[in-house]
């Protein structure tokens, strides 16, 4: 109730002067009179905004809100504060409603009330701070920046760089609009480095790379902020100037040798470019700042593995385990090292300690594989069954691991029977049905594949992957090409930019004899996805159309990326006599080579 008096701001009950108390009321009152009289008078605090009394329903709503808040019924309190705010447009009530809404994490309500707060008390910096924060969380960056500028104009700390960090999730049109708003603001605050940084980031994100680079260079003359350094490096990379980016970053690391963040970025750049010794040197320097950093130890361990130095890699992984830094990954890689050294006991021990993180499933696959390799089939399958019972959240993946284990060893009947058993318990499980279909495909069981993919489509009629898989199989292995075309068209309607679907469309058109359109689809598929199977398809269609040189070039380029590709070798052998990476010599070439050529 006292809070309400403060909100109302006007005296509704006049105080009785002590002198008016009747002497007949007794001695006790006289004592009170003396005590009160001795208290110094305190001047009331001046109101923060013009005082206005609340009338009728509004006053009642505020009373209900205060009592509800006192009784911890915050939902009822907020409901009444919101109603009072909307009716009175009072900034004090709006402020109270906003803070309570934020406490209750009701951002939608807070956005309503903070708007009234800032509109009716535009010089209140707290109001603008809350508004900016709420609008940023809601993704309304263009509106948020208006309040951020108000904070700056009121003498507060305006963090304009937040717009750079939040802009990545915006659509292309939103980025353009935000860039325009920030550019306009830069014209009013040309020396604000955070505004300039946000503008540079948005220039980079909208493809205006040269302008972004120029602005980054300007900023580097104003500040040594590490984010500006990273921005320039990013822009140089986007311009294709990778060496310039690396040189620039190397110079900055020399200038700021204690800047661990820049050093790690440089180390990662070297690693990605396969300059392993340079990466190792930079990670080693970074490790001096924090000797037990799990990320750096992991990077150094991976470099050691790439350099075939299992002993050094083991040292780093064991240190990760000792300091409890990414221990699951460390145990998994230690298991791999032990396997390569034929130490199966040590490998099993390491894999069993990976925990329940990301490495859990691949570790279980390795455990089962090791056991099967030793002929311990029953033990392997019992292990996977135990894992399914103890980790039900991974049950489906563990089922697939067991089925894969059987299929990889050519045990067709065992793999399919096992899948039959588990699917019988969950007959509408789309993932397991799809997996059994693909297992059937491995063993040329078209009946299994078609049956399960059609069951998938009966459960999930918009499953584009099932449509494409069935359509491609019908196009490739049967003469039901019209049926295949219809399925693939439906899949492409759902996902028009999926490279695998585009490849399937090209292949079915080829099987239907529409070579021109087939090539169009297959060229697009290969441009989206450099894949050996797509290259095999495109090359075959071009060869049949008479473009043998182009077909050969496409196959050769694909072989460089996938030198062991069986599908490429098969199509090249079938069409041009390709055997183990070379073209078979023709009879004429053999005769000429034997006789020395000419007229001999």
- Largest β sheet strand count, sense and barrel closure: 2 strands, antiparallel
- With strands numbered from the N-terminus, the spatial order across the biggest sheet is 1-2
Give a count of the beta strands, DSSP E runs of length 2 or more: 2
Q: What structural category characterises the helix and strand content?
A: mainly alpha
Your description of this structure?
The protein has a domain at 2-38. Helix content is 73%, strand content 1%. The chain has 34 helices and two strands. Strand 1 (578-579) and strand 2 (582-583) form a beta hairpin. The longest helix is centred in the first third of the chain and has 17 residues, at 172-188. It starts with a helix and ends in a 5-residue tail after the last helix.
Concise summary:
The chain has 34 helices and two strands. It has 600 residues and is mostly helical.
């Amino acid at each position: 109730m006292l809070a309400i008096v403060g909100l109302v701001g006007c005296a509704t009950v006049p105080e009785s002067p002590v002198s008016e108390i009747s002497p007949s009321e007794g001695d006790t009152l006289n004592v009170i009179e003396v005590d009160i009289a001795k208290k110094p008078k305190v001047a009331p605090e001046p109101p923060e905004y013009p005082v206005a009394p609340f009338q009728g329903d509004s006053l009642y709503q505020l009373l209900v809100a205060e009592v509800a808040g006192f009784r911890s019924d915050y939902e009822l309190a907020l409901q009444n504060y919101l109603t009072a705010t909307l009716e009175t447009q009072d900034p004090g009530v709006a402020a109270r409603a906003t803070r309570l809404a934020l406490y209750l994490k009701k951002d939608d309500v807070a956005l309503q009330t903070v708007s009234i707060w800032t509109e009716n008390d535009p010089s209140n910096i707290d109001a603008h701070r809350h508004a900016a924060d709420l609008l940023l969380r809601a993704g309304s960056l263009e509106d948020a920046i208006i309040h951020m500028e108000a904070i700056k104009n009121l003498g507060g700390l305006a963090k304009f760089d937040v717009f750079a960090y939040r802009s990545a999730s915006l659509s292309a049109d939103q980025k353009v609009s935000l860039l325009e708003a920030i550019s306009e603001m830069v014209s009013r605050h040309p020396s604000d480095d955070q505004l300039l940084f946000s503008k540079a980031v948005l220039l980079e994100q909208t493809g205006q790379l040269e302008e972004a680079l120029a602005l980054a260079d300007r900023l580097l003359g104003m500040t040594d902020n590490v984010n500006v350094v990273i921005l320039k490096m990013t822009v140089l990379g986007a311009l294709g100037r990778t060496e310039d980016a690396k040189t620039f970053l190397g110079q900055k690391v020399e200038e700021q040798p204690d800047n661990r963040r820049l050093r790690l970025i440089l180390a990662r750049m070297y690693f990605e470019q396969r300059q392993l010794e340079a990466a190792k040197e930079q990670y080693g320097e970074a490790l001096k700042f924090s000797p037990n950093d799990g990320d750096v130890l992991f990077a150094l361990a991976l470099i050691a593995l790439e350099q075939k130095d299992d002993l050094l890699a083991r040292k780093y992984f064991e240190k990760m385990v000792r300091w409890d830094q990414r221990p699951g990954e460390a145990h998994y890689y230690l298991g791999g090292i032990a396997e390569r050294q034929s130490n199966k006991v040590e490998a099993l021990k390491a894999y069993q300690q990976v925990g329940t993180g990301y490495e859990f499933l691949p570790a279980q696959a390795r455990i089962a594989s090791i056991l099967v390799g030793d002929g311990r089939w029953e033990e392997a399958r019992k292990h996977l069954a135990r894992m399914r019972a103890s980790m039900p959240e991974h049950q489906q993946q563990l089922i697939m691991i067991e089925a894969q284990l059987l299929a990889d060893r050519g045990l067709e009947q065992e793999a399919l029977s096992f899948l039959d058993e588990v699917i019988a318990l969950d007959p509408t499980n789309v993932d397991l049905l799809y997996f059994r279909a693909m297992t059937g495909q491995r063993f040329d069981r078209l009946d299994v594949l078609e049956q399960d993919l059609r069951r998938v489509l009966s459960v999930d009629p918009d499953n584009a992957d099932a449509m494409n898989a069935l359509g491609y199989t019908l196009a490739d292995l049967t003469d039901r090409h019209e049926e295949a075309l219809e399925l693939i068209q439906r899949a492409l309607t759902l996902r028009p930019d999926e490279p695998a679907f585009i490849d399937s469309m090209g292949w079915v058109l080829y099987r239907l004899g529409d070579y021109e359109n087939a090539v169009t689809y297959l060229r697009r598929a290969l441009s989206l996805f450099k894949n050996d199977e797509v290259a095999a398809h495109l090359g075959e269609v071009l060869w049949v159309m008479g473009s043998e040189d182009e077909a050969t070039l496409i196959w050769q380029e694909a072989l460089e990326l996938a030198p062991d590709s069986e599908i490429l070798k098969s199509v090249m052998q079938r069409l041009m006599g390709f055997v183990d990476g070379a073209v078979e010599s023709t009879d004429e070439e053999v005769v000429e080579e034997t006789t020395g050529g000419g007229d001999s």
